[in-house]
Amino acid sequence: MTRNEVIMMLEVLRKAYPKTFGNLDDMAGTIDFYYNRFKEYPSDLVVQALDLYVDENEYPPTVAGIKKYITLIQGSDDYEQMFNELWMAICGAKKFTELCPQNKRYIQSQKALDDLGQSESTLKDVVHGQYLKRIGTICDEMRAQRVARNQLGQNRLDELQGVVKQITG
């Protein structure tokens, strides 16, 4: 990812989260910060992850949040790791908003997560079995959506490059 592509990324963030990214006092420092964290990634992958994050989250992303979506797009579905994350949330150690996108889709809401946390001790075995049955399908659906978005990603990247040209003159 180049510095100009970081500027495109910040433009997306500025539009999606104007309260947080609308007035960046130290633009050069912000560009350096994001460049140093994403320079090893292809720009189309970062743009796709950012677009997916913006579509699925109401709060501005952290670097870790964007990188989580990059990992998701790259297709590393570790069902046991995802279940462990979900189990931590059921036990109260994580909130719904902190879950990976697949688990958010699986659980649907904080209320559903809270309801699961009220169940008895045999819950883990039951939930684990149900989870493993459904999470594969959810991951497959999300992978298919990513493929479709990837096809649109190049168009989005071209559009953002036009924005950078307007900003940088």
- C-alpha geometry: elongated
Secondary-structure content class:
mainly alpha
> From the coordinates shown, what is the CATH architecture of the domain at 3-74?
Orthogonal Bundle
The count of DSSP E runs of length 2 or more, i.e. the number of strands, is 0
Explain this structure to me?
The protein is mostly helical. The protein has a domain at about 5-75: Helicase, Ruva Protein, domain 3 (Orthogonal Bundle), CATH 1.10.8. Helices cover about 75% and strands about 0% of the residues. The relative contact order is 0.14. The model has no long low-confidence stretch (mean pLDDT about 80).
List keywords for this structure.
mainly alpha; 169 residues; Helicase, Ruva Protein, domain 3
Topology, please?
Elements (H helix, E strand, L loop, with lengths): L2 H14 L1 H4 L5 H12 L4 H14 L6 H12 L4 H12 L10 H7 L2 H8 L5 H46 L1
Helix pairs in contact: 1-3, 1-4, 1-9, 4-5, 4-9, 6-9, 7-9
Question: Quick summary of this structure?
Answer:
The protein is built from nine helices and no strands.
